Amino acid sequence: MTTVEITHEEQAELAKALLDALDPLAAAVRARATGLPVERMWNAEPVEVALTVLSAWRLVDAEVKRLAAVAAATAGSYGANYEQLGTAWGITRQGARKKWPEAVSRPTARPGPLELFGGTAELAEDEASGGWRWTATGADGERGETATGHRTREEAAAHAGAFLAAHG
Predict the structure, then answer these.
(1) Does the model's pTM come out above 0.70?
(2) Which residue would you say has higher pLDDT here, 128 or 95?
(3) CA-CA to 5 of 20 to 30 Å: which in 23, 89, 129, 140?
């Protein structure tokens, strides 16, 4: 996907739509801040009115950020990666990862044997201990297995990988 640009006409239409949406929000913010009735709430110093409008834009900005995060998470749930999210937002892959750290789920470990250095290892959850165990056959035919359970699948895989490297 490439970065999308909008035409001058589309930008003008977007600005109008945003201003139309902002007006009731700014009016509500101003009414709460001043306690004035609707017909008098804009009767103030221009700086006060401008600051009210600025406050309303901050609220819109926060909502846009929230909705963008929802869109990024939705794209990630359908398989988009950080490079694609960055391209869509006009930033780098790293920028997208920083902006939406939870948007892309990490791939789960592949089931099946671990094949390294010409040998294979099987990882299995140890029901008794709740940890993980491994059994392996190195490229040299040597068989090995874990002496104790490991806390995580990754830890068991690391130990099995070390065995396979030693018997490759």
Answers:
(1) no
(2) 95
(3) 23
Q: Is 118 left (phi over 0), alpha (psi -120 to 50) or beta?
A: left
Which residues, in sequence order, are bridge partners of residue 125? 132
Please give the single-letter amino acid code of residue 6: I
Tokens of 40: 């008098």
Which residues, 6 or more positions from 83, have their beta carbon under 8 angstroms from its beta carbon? Answer: 93, 96
Q: Which residue has the higher pLDDT, 131 or 82?
A: 82
Q: In this structure, are residues 59 and 29 in contact, taking their beta carbons and an 8 Å threshold?
A: yes
Strands (E), the chain: 114-116, 119-125, 132-137, 143-145
Amino acid type, 73: A
Rounded to an integer, what distance in angstroms lies between the CA atom of residue 78 and that of residue 161? 32
Backbone angles phi, psi at 134, to 5 degrees: -140, 150
Sign of CA dihedral 149, 151, 157, 163: negative
